[in-house]
# Entry
Amino acid sequence: MTVTKKLEGSKLTAQIEGRLDTNTTPEAEKELTGSLDNVKELILDFKNLDYISSAGLRLLLMLQKKMNAQGSMKICNANAIVKEIFEVTGFSDVLTVE
# Structure
């Protein structure tokens, strides 16, 4: 799992590659939560995300709660498998997925 971040003013784009599961989520959480000071817009690019587990979903909920307080968050370029996981779990109703 790799997290590539790009900060432009108060907009942070984070591209996550690989798997977001029990083994990789703690590292992703450290990478992302440590970068959210003064961020008003968080964009998670899932173009190269192959899989997300319940641990990854928990991270998304935590990030969404934090961003609700200071701005907005959206997920883009999720593949069909990840989108289906969002649908089945009801996360598509909670998250902004484009």
